[in-house]
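Minimal example, chain plus 3,4-dihydroxybenzoic acid.
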Amino acid sequence: MVPMQDDVPVANRTMELSDCRDKWSFSETYDCWCLKDILYTEKADVPAFQRLSVFVPRAYMHPDGTPTEESRKVPIVFENNSAGYMQMPHTWLGGPRCYAEPYLKDGLIYVTCGCRGRESRNAEGKPVGKAPVSLVDLKTAIRFLRHNRAALPGNFDRIISVGWSAGGAMSTLLGVTGDNSRYNSYLEAAGAYMDESDAVFASQIYCPIIDLEHADMAYEWCFGADKTCEDSHAGRAETMTPFKEALSRELASRYVTYVNSLCLKHPVTGEALTLHADGRSGAFYDYLMACISHAATEYLTRLDAGSLPENGSAEDYVKGCCTYKVPAPAPGPAHQAGPGGVPSSEMKPAMAERQGTDKRSWLAWDGKKAAVTDLDAYVLHHRRRMKPCTSFDKLENDSAENQLFGSPQHDFMHFNAEIGRVVKTLQDAFPAEAEKYADAFDVSGDAELAERIYLTNPMDFIAADEQSRQARYYRIRVGACDADTSLSIAMTLAVRLQNAGFPVDYALVWDQPHCEADYPGQVLSWIHAICAEA
Ligand code: DHB
């Protein structure tokens, strides 16, 4: 029997969905069958968040709640709603952050899944959502669905994982860590079926917040030219102190060393993607600028073709005549501010002043191709820094990620010893800051934390000695105006996957913020293409 709470609707009394045939309802608005509010584990600590719903186009269910034969061929989109690394519910049709409609209209089966997160506590008040628990919950849900494959429509060899931001991180991890036994003790604790697989066929990844141990270095490398940030509790742009400027410079410089240690190769030419010591030259830098330029080309071409909602020609855009405005992000806890909250990507009034009045001299357009060659000009004149230095493992130990890696003893914890080492190198010039911060970052003795960090970073599982049943296909999309993490983070993921032999469809999407950045219909075309190929 599944645990019940009065205020949390749960449709299933047992873990067998064959007992739930009478629970299917039909939505006339979405023309689909709905099996809502399914608890996916009997060991749910926080039942409100450990639930999922299944939506199925009309043709694939009989009215008696059994799947049609034809449904056995239909891919299943498994969208996780993880955001801000917080506990998140599954979504509902027409509700916030629900992306079901285009998938359903296209004839795909759609599952929306919730999970525990960094602030989750059980009935006794004990923390139960620290990393890697969100991922483990999603794996548990996939195993539960497979356990019930006879009662459900869909092709369980064609599960396509989707998510954005922290959910993009989850989608990446579902792709690269399928059935990896390093998660077994967590899966057992979560109540997962240990004899079922959690592997997925493909991963659609939107703006992933990943590689958290290197994200601060990457951020300073990308946005270092901007000495102000919009992530200020006062709601004003905040200017870096001399200490933070020095810290930013040193982190950016160490990112060069990190990138070069990855031995990445250009996915087409095979050329080594390295950075020169200045951080602003080398094939890695050129490749990122080529990806940004490609996004601009795609956008300006569509603008001239009249296929975008915006008015004006490409030429108008390049001259700065049509004004760019950061669209409001989708609502949700990812955009709540406050200690441990995640700063909003929404443009605050004070930030608009930081946009500058440049006439887009940093953007060249010859009528066919766009070129952006100077990352610092792009940052200073188009997409400015959002977060402070440091922003993932924060100096004040109060970021979303600090809470993610917390423990029963400390709700927030540091996880990047490198920042402490860098602060130490600055102690002659900044003794007070060194005294305050350096030692706090020394987490090197914590083996349990090290394992949890490892299990949260998809980069650990690509081209590694890991035994995982990995997704075959990956599609990665990131808004070119996303400043929640460095633009290089997703590019590095894409290249690493490509270098490991996986087909990857990666692109930046011009002027899109931190969101499910995409052009309409493209993700559907990709799903059909990979399913036809496999
Ligand atoms: C999310 C955004 C962030 O900036 C971050 O650091 C972590 C997660 C999110 O929207 O999920």
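The radius of gyration is 23 Å. Residues 326-350 have pLDDT under 50 and may be disordered.
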